[in-house]
Amino acid sequence: MAKRPNNANLTEEIISEAKRQAVAFEVQRLTAAAAREMRRTRPIPKCQFCNEEHPTKTCENFTAAEKKNLVIQYKLCFICLNKHNHHPAKCRTLRHQEELCTKKQCFNTYSLHHRTICVEPEHPQVSPPAGNGKAGNGKSLADRILEM
Question: Which of 18, 75, 143, 148 is most buried, most CB within 10 Å of its CB?
Fold first, then answer.
């Protein structure tokens, strides 16, 4: 068997190349971590209604009716309250249903909008009459509901 030549220069070259690659890898790791951190910390968005430092959906400077008029005036999206010039079907807020209005009359009329700009009043709950559950005409509440 032939012995390998003992080349000190080759060993030093391999070690220096390994060090160079380790430094390059560490720089790449730090750069990627810094990029992730920059994406994570976003500036506070400005309100589309009053231009103050808070999200548009939390603005308390206007009533719901005023907000709805401002949405129309500034041509904002009725669903997300932002000016992204997107089709309502592609609005990202549709993925977060908790932001949408859930009032029954809005749902029944297919009025899809953000919950903070809803101007429809809530219908008061019908309370059952006192007594045996029968109204003056002798019908129970269940019977009257079935007639509707």
Answer: 143
| Distance (Å, whole) CA 12 – CA 7 | 9
pTM of the entire predicted model: 0.52
Task: Identify whether the C-beta of residue 56 lies closer than 8 Å to the C-beta of residue 48.
Answer: yes
Rounded to 5°, angle at Cα 98 from 92 and 104: 115
Q: How far apart are CA 50 and CA 56, in angstroms?
A: 8
Q: What is d(CA 19, CA 117) in angstroms, rounded to the nearest whole number?
A: 60
Contact call for residues 47 and 56 (beta carbons, < 8 A)? yes
Backbone angles phi, psi at 38, to 5 degrees: -65, -40
Comparing 112 with 7, the larger pLDDT belongs to 112
pLDDT, one tens digit per residue, over 17-43 is 999 999 999 999 999 998 888 877 677
The amino acid that residue 84 corresponds to is H
- Helix extents (H) in the chain: 8-40, 64-74, 104-108, 141-147
